[in-house]
Structure formats: structure tokens, C-alpha cells
Amino acid sequence: MPEPTGPKQSAAPAVAPQSPPLWLLAELTYKCPLQCPYCSNPLDFADHGEELTTEQWIDVFRQARKMGAAQLGFSGGEPLVRRDLEQLIAEGRKLGYYTNLITSGIGLNADRIAAFREAGLDHIQISFQASDETVNNMLAGSDKAFQQKLKMAREVKAQGYPMVLNFVTHKHNIDRIDRIIELCVELEADFVELATCQYYGWAYENKESLLPTRAQLERAERITNEYRDKLAAAGNPIKLIFVTPDYYEERPKKCMNGWGEIFLTVTPDGTALPCHSARMLPIEFPNVKDSSLQHIWRDSFGFNHFRGDDWMQEPCRSCDEKELDLGGCRCQAYMLAGDMNAADPVCSKSPHHQTILDARAAAENSGEDSPITFRNERNSRVFARG
Ligand code: FES
């Protein structure tokens, strides 16, 4: 991890947000029965404090809703680990949120899906690691994971939910994209996100073994497009969404649709973040146990620092494209350039763009047998000890 190069934390004048936090992501827990090596949770997750209580979560939902939040996502870790999940869903729904459960499916069963339905849950998304049972279970770290996911995907659909599947693709599964799509068709999925791994958290640690080559990526995109056309022609309503990794772009994305513009993440211990990875930055982010969400969103240093463009350095400051991408991703700038105020190195104008070119070159030379650091408590404690 690069050395912090952050600014002093002060009660800097706020750039008042024009919009409320429309999307609230409640990371209920860092506990997870699986060990995916591309998890976006912090490397030192094992070292973070007590989880918020049921009452504290409900209070967060209430405050955010009052500010205008409309979507409530439950994620983790694995949110099913929380025994109060049904109650949290019911409260969220009562407050008028559109509610979304993002899960691995491990810990799910037919009764629990029925209870979620009863509580008013709107949407369930199940993630798979691969279409192949062996690869799926190797990445997940559980020899029962694949069969459980298949069963739960079918059960979710049987109970009247649309089937929404997520496959994170990388070097270990991207060459089987055709099989992944076939599996989704067999399962009668409605929406499938084929999201090429982005390199944050554990994925950043494992990027040498996960980043596909450009040829692999282009092949996967071409095959997805062919399936999309073929399935549409056959009247299959399945929606295939293909997400490319930043590392093969020449311009960065407008991360989170703008810092502190729409997204608000609350971590298991109550830390409030403008994006799920921001915890790595040398900024002290506020906690919902100490401050109101209104104060956090409008007035805190952490949420205001990257609003507007005063913070930008060259080449972003004078760039005629800066409104399009707002300098790209702050977390990526910190990871790759060691400076959270720098241009996102994905941008070919960045003086640190070579780091991206080096990663692409490394992907050409690495094989599927490159070592993997799995996301688990033991490895997390090693990172936490530094
Ligand atoms: Fe944190 Fe992009 S993931 S700003």
C-alpha cells in the first residue's frame, strides 16, 4: 500500500451537494463463509470494530430516507449471516425503499426466501464464481458452493423473483464465457451481469493472477455480443450486461457517478463512505455512531473533499474532458499513483499511466497457476498486522 499523501483533515468549507444520497448501500457484516480472491472488502476487514446493531441500522435507514434515499442495498461480506436481515428488510420496505439483496446464496433456503418475500424484499442478486463446479468451488473455498447456488437461483425464481445473476470474470473463467451464458440460459435468468473484475481490495492484491489479457477480454465481449443477438432473435428476454475492466480503457470512469453525488455506503462498524473502497484512503471518514447522516453527507471533510474540481491537479485541472470523468477514481489513483489527488492512472494523460501498461504486460505473461491470496480471516489478520 502506498504511503498516505493526504491533506490535513479540517472543517473545510463544504461544497454543498445538489442531490441527496439516492443509493444507500448497507454493508451489514464483513463475515462471509466464502473466500473470493476478488472481494472488494478491505484487506484488514478482520480488524474492524463491532457491527452496528439492528436499531442502529434502522436509524441509518430512517435518516437516509428522510434525506431522499430511494434504493437500499444489503450486502457484506455475506448479508445472510445477519439473523436480523428479515427485520432490516421489513423496516427498509416500510420506510419506502426499493430493497435489493446482494448475496452469494450461501445460507439461503426456501423458507428464508419466503420470509424475505413476506418482509417485502424487491430484488435478489446471486453471485457465481464460475460455470464450472470445480473452478467455482476452488475460488469460493467451499466444495458445496456451486450446487447450493444453483439450487437457490432456481428457488428465487420459483418464488416469483426475477433471476438476477452476477459473474465476476477474470483469467480463471473468462475463456468459458460461452458456458457461463449457457448456464444462465439453462437457469432461465432474467438479468446477468458479466462483470470483468475491477482491481480494488483483494482483487488488487491478486491482479497478476486475475487480470485477463486483452485478447481474452475481446473474445469474451465478442462472444457475449453474439449470444445477445442470437438469444434476442430466439425471443429469449435475458439481458446480458458486459462490464469491461478499467485497466483496458484509455480514459477513466466517472467513479460512483461523482464523489458524494448519489452513493452512500455504510460499513459494518458504521463508517460512512462515498464509495465501498474509500476506507483505504488517508482520510478519516465519519461514523454514523458519532454524527447524523445529514452532517456526514453535507458537511464532513471526507464527503466534501472531492466534490467540485478545486482539488484537481494537472493534467486534470486544465483537461477539457474533466467534466466527463471528474479525474476518474480516487481509490485507483491512490493505489496506483500513491496520491489520491492524482489523475486516475487509467487515463493515458496521467504521468502514472505506465502502471496500467505494466499490468497489461504482466497479464500477457501470467498463467492461471499464479498464486492467489484468498480473502479470509487468517490472511486479513496478516494484512492488519502490516
Ligand atoms: Fe473509490 Fe472509485 S472506488 S472513488
From TrEMBL:
<dbReference type="InterPro" id="IPR017200">
    <property type="entry name" value="PqqE-like"/>
</dbReference>
<dbReference type="InterPro" id="IPR050377">
    <property type="entry name" value="Radical_SAM_PqqE_MftC-like"/>
</dbReference>
<comment type="pathway">
    <text>Cofactor biosynthesis; pyrroloquinoline quinone biosynthesis.</text>
</comment>
<feature type="binding site">
    <location>
        <position position="39"/>
    </location>
    <ligand>
        <name>[4Fe-4S] cluster</name>
    </ligand>
</feature>
<keyword id="KW-0949">S-adenosyl-L-methionine</keyword>
<dbReference type="InterPro" id="IPR011843">
    <property type="entry name" value="PQQ_synth_PqqE_bac"/>
</dbReference>
<keyword id="KW-0408">Iron</keyword>
<feature type="domain" description="Radical SAM core">
    <location>
        <begin position="18"/>
        <end position="233"/>
    </location>
</feature>
<comment type="subunit">
    <text>Interacts with PqqD. The interaction is necessary for activity of PqqE.</text>
</comment>
<keyword id="KW-0884">PQQ biosynthesis</keyword>
<feature type="binding site">
    <location>
        <position position="32"/>
    </location>
    <ligand>
        <name>[4Fe-4S] cluster</name>
    </ligand>
</feature>
<dbReference type="InterPro" id="IPR007197">
    <property type="entry name" value="rSAM"/>
</dbReference>
<comment type="function">
    <text>Catalyzes the cross-linking of a glutamate residue and a tyrosine residue in the PqqA protein as part of the biosynthesis of pyrroloquinoline quinone (PQQ).</text>
</comment>
<dbReference type="InterPro" id="IPR000385">
    <property type="entry name" value="MoaA_NifB_PqqE_Fe-S-bd_CS"/>
</dbReference>
<keyword id="KW-0411">Iron-sulfur</keyword>
<dbReference type="Pfam" id="PF04055">
    <property type="entry name" value="Radical_SAM"/>
</dbReference>
<keyword id="KW-0479">Metal-binding</keyword>
<keyword id="KW-0560">Oxidoreductase</keyword>
<dbReference type="InterPro" id="IPR006638">
    <property type="entry name" value="Elp3/MiaA/NifB-like_rSAM"/>
</dbReference>
<protein>
    <recommendedName>
        <fullName>PqqA peptide cyclase</fullName>
        <ecNumber>1.21.98.4</ecNumber>
    </recommendedName>
</protein>
<feature type="binding site">
    <location>
        <position position="36"/>
    </location>
    <ligand>
        <name>[4Fe-4S] cluster</name>
    </ligand>
</feature>
<keyword id="KW-0004">4Fe-4S</keyword>
<comment type="similarity">
    <text>Belongs to the radical SAM superfamily. PqqE family.</text>
</comment>
<dbReference type="InterPro" id="IPR023885">
    <property type="entry name" value="4Fe4S-binding_SPASM_dom"/>
</dbReference>
<dbReference type="Pfam" id="PF13186">
    <property type="entry name" value="SPASM"/>
</dbReference>
